[in-house]
Amino acid sequence: MGKLTKNRREALAKFDKNATYSLVDAIQVVKNITSTKFDSSVDLDIRLGVDPRKANQMVRGSVTLPHGSGKVVRVLVLCTPDKEEEAKNAGADHVGLDDYIEKIKGGWTDIDVVITTPNVMPKVGPLGRILGPRGLMPNPKTGTVTMEVEKAVKEVKAGKIDFKVDKTGIIHSSVAKVSFDNNKILDNAKEFIHTVIKLKPAAAKGTYIKSIYISSTMSYGIQVDPKSVN
After folding, report:
1. Which of 35, 67, 80, 200 is the most buried (most CB within 10 A)?
2. pLDDT at residue 67 above 90?
């Protein structure tokens, strides 16, 4: 992507809420209209032509963003003592079992990802009512219930994020920070969207990607032409 011409930059500065932009242009618009004092996240909202109430149309998965999400990810590993050293060496912020289970039962959830080993799931299972609603419950499908603790911790720290379609058919995720340069935001956004496209359920009929919006934490959503993503 070359330098924007002066005219195109001026046109993008005059943001039109009703227009549809290419992904490249939409990223520039987000940068133009974001003026928070903190480093805002860049968020994607992808509306899918699926019925999430049907198990065969559920869309969920994980993606490793090429440039990371820009977020500091706090990781708790719940494991038996033989795995503690491995978890700590991989960069986990908290490692343990019974003491952390008690803390969580008491309402502590100052973490972003929980990774556990299959052999302690009977102890972790009852935490579902606390962890589930916060999207923290470990799941084998997203690689957070695993014997490969080191690999799981490193992937999450490197920018692996999990996502799933909500009950209204939308996938929402942060994919970068506004401070990233445009090409890095573009790489991350494309990787995310392409991963969602690959997960199209066979049972989903009609248009799969109904709309894509990109925004920052406090900005309007900018509509992206899905054809511009390929």
Report:
1. 67
2. yes
| Tokens (6 digits) for 193 | 């969207």
- Residue pLDDT, tens place only, 132-146: 989 899 999 888 999
- For 3, residues 6+ apart whose C-beta sits below 8 A from its C-beta are none
pLDDT at 111: 96
- The H or E element that residue 135 is part of is none
CB of 130 closer than 8 Å to CB of 104:
yes
pTM for this entry: 0.77
* Spatial distance between the Cα atoms of 161 and 186, rounded to a whole number of angstroms: 17
pLDDT value for 4: 67
Backbone angles phi, psi at 94, to 5 degrees: -135, 135
In sequence order, which residues have a C-beta less than 8 Å from that of residue 127 and are 6 or more positions away? 101, 104, 105, 137
Residue listed under structure tokens 């957070």:
144
CA-wise closest residue to 191 among 78, 66, 92? 66
Judge whether 221 and 214 are in contact, CB under 8 Å. Answer: yes
Q: What was the pLDDT predicted at 3?
A: 63
Closest CA to 127 of 100, 154, 145: 100
Residue 32 contacts residue 13 (beta carbons within 8 Å): yes
Q: Which amino acid is at 62?
A: S
Q: Which ranges in 148-181 belong to alpha helices (H)? A: 149-157
CA 32 to chain centre: 23
Strand order across the 94-96 sheet: 94-96, 75-78, 113-116
**10, burial (CB in 10 Å: exposed 0-12, middle 13-18, buried 19+):** exposed
